[in-house]
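Predict the 3D structure for this chain.
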Amino acid sequence: MDSSSPAQGAARSADLAALDVRITGCRACPRLVAWREEVAATKRAAFADQTYWGRPVPGFGPPDAPLLVVGLAPAAHGGNRTGRMFTGDRSGDVLYAALHDIGLASRGTSVRADDGLELYGVRVTSPVHCAPPANKPTPGERDTCRPWLVRELGLLRPTLRAVVVLGAFGWQAALPALTEAGWAVPRPRPAFAHGARVTLVRRPEPDAPGTGPASAELFGCFHVSQRNTFTGRLTPAMLRQVLATAAESAGLPTRSPWTS
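Done. Predicted structure below.
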């Protein structure tokens, strides 16, 4: 399963389903492997009766999504427990509530991998697929994991029209991945900011000219971390606004029932 080489595993993945399977078998970063497995074995008291996933967490959403949301990494007792991105923790509840509010998710909560949640035209992923200690991957771990994100972006190229990046770490990881996947990122590289918007021009593919959108819009948004949402640095209205704007640029229909 190419467990020690994300670059080889990513290159051998013909579609997103194959990529997701290979991601779950990755053991390329010893510190992350040890941590995610330790958490899965010791558990949190509230989840002591549950079997933790304890592996890398793949992306979630349709393989032809025109909108991609990029986070940071799975939470130790969220995605690392449930096996699905932003599932089983408060950050996920904030994100999926916003997606549901604007009509891009079938429900506003994400409790477990088999809870029936569906995403409409949007896929959720992260630049690091293993839960890191203290929610802080190292730059080396980010770079080791990058081939998975590059391949995911490449497989989404025929439909991808907008990318929302949650937080500065994800932004710093996404820019080089987007470059490797075939988009021209402006120079100097744009700085992260909430509400930032950058147009990325797609470089032509010699073997598939004219396929897919000619450009994609990149959006910055504060991360849906508890620290940001509890302090009000990121409010539900702020998150909905960024997601709705990105969805509009991706050509997705949205609804706006909220008043604040």
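The two ends are 47 Å apart (CA to CA).
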